[in-house]
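Supplementary Methods, section 5.1.

A reviewer requested that the exact input to the structure prediction be made available. We therefore reproduce it here, unchanged from the version used in the analyses.
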Amino acid sequence: MPGVRWGCTGGIDAMKNILIIEDDRPVRAGIVAVLRRHGFAVLDTGLGAEGLSLAIAHRPDLILSDINLPGLNGMDVLKQLRARPEIAAIPVVLMTGETHKADARSSMMAGADDYLPKPFSMDQLLATVRARLDRQNNIQHALDAQNHADLIGAEEKIRLQTSALEAPANGIAITDRNGKILWLNHAFTKLTGYSYQEAVGQNPRILKSGRHPPEFYADLWATISSGNVWH
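The structure derived from this sequence is encoded token-by-token as follows.
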């Protein structure tokens, strides 16, 4: 792909990948050099369409894009990024020499995460990059913590439900609509003499004693077949 380079150096941010979309070669070269010097992995291009393709292919941690690009401009790239679910969450910082406040507002309303007016110093660039990556890390940590809490909550709910089913002195068996036993509690094995392994997969008719009338079993089967609980 013409105009595209990929590379990184060591450092504390070496695992963070940044995509630069900037058509001004000297500016792009300066940004790339500084970021690589500080340990970031950097992918860069001067074309918006190529930048979009690289974002889809490599899923960078952050995108720095100029607004004024030939062909597909930075705002177009941003809109297309936000329209694709697989890359919509990638943070985007837009760069431009147009410092008018309306331009900044329109960029943020279009879905940009930050706005870097030109000219900017490399210290400003690094501060913006680190601040955005830190915020993204905090968001990810919060999501991971919530997912972990949800998982623990689901496991605890299952444990409590199982305990509730195991606790009664009455035998409990869970079947599918065809009557096949899927699960039973400890009381069931004590009352019937069947072990868990012997009963699971069987039909409740294994409990037929011959002492109940046909209507008794017809009611049992009709209740189970309808998906209801038979007592």
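Strands lie at 5-7, 17-21, 41-45, 62-66, 92-96, 114-117, 173-175, 181-184. These observations are discussed further in the main text.
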